[in-house]
Amino acid sequence: MSSKEIAKSAVLIALVLLSIVLTYMTWNFSPDVSDVDRTEDDKTENQSQTIGKPNNVSMDEVITPYQLIHSNEGNVKGMEAHRDSVKKINKVIQDQKVTHTQHMHSDHNLIIPDLSDDFVVFDFSYDMPLSTYLGQVMNIEARVPNDFNFNRLLINEDQNGKLQMYAISKDRHDVVKMKSSASATQFSDTLDNLDKKMKPYAEIITNKDTVDKATHIFAPSEEQKLKSYRTIYSHFSVDTMNSILFNDSVVVRSAKSGTTTYNNNTGVANYNDRSEKYQYKNLSEDRNSSKNMKEVIPSTFDYINHHGGFTDDFRLFDKDDKSGELMYQMFFNGRPTFNEDDLESLRVSWGDHGIFSYSRALLKTNITIDSGDEEKTLDGVEKVRASLANNPNINFEAVSNMTIGYAINDNPDKNDIEIQRNSELIPRWFIEYKGDWHEYDGNGGAKINELETREDGIYFCIYFSQHHVGRDLCE
Fold first, then answer.
1. What is the tens place of the pLDDT at every residue in 67-84?
2. Radius of gyration of the chain measured on its C-alpha atoms
3. CB within 8 A of 112, min separation 6: which ones?
């Protein structure tokens, strides 16, 4: 009996203690009302501050070369810059130190005496501050010339089993040599794996500044058979962009030709519902955008990335030194895409305190599929080079890049709301000529326009083709 009484007493005591604890928690309970006072509009506004997943890409995925080249004793191979390939080779170089730098200049053709016959080339389509690339993109500790810009990086092994890097200026007259703490053995192992994916490339000379192995133009040497693709887009709303760019409510003003204007005291935006292009300008910033690329490049990247603006494989592809505008261009299968209406690009400039201008199509890729068409056969670069060099209406010395990309042929259908907007991606050669990119005409010429002046001051546009030179009044 005594043991049963003890057990009953223990259970009773436990119940009493539990009752005390529950009573205390009830008295001190304070409900979380942080979300109660928020209206549905507030919730919707906060949810619409991003286009896609915020901060979903790293800087070295956007500030990246457009092609990788391996030159080994005159045997040149290369590949388009797939993100995973660039990441593998970057991993060896990143988070290292530059132990020594040397700036060299040449008034004539740039020759690097200690560059070996086995080196890798990172080719960029734009030039940028070396300090920004090393410090903010690659996280490399380095003391380099403060105002030095480059658009090509060469990498080879030094006598101590470490990597040496050579940053070459766009005009091919300056180079900064850098000794790195990165292991050449690890780099070589990574390169061996990438070599299996590389194809034969040729070395092209276009002028006196591209005659050395360090300054050649590199492009695929053999015929390329590539598929065409069809992309179907999804849309995001004007309200989403307005909520990102405007600090306060906006006034809506309709205009002609399907363009709607939105503005408040700090900014103005135009949206064309036919092209689905959105253009914003910040009126609270100073009159001119910043041209300091050491600030503009990381700032615009952070801004776009923060609101999930890199909805596709966008990469920095061009910049305008006069206006300070950067162009982030969409890549597909590791290759750049081109469209006459800028459907594939984000154009952004920066002010003293924030975004200055922002232009983009309010579209993002929903699905991309094989178009079902036969593969396109593209000439090797030597045939392209010959047709351009033999065209008397083209100044071949002004050709600075040659690459394969995709032309985007847009197919908007506004007549049927059931049909989604789509585009065809067609492989083509593209030529950088006098600083601008042009589609190469597969018949043997390039879609490059130049201006010719008559004595009476009337300008004509000349359209170049291997078989025909057309002359029309320029608009």
1. 999 999 989 999 999 999
2. 29
3. 104, 154, 166, 175, 177, 212, 214
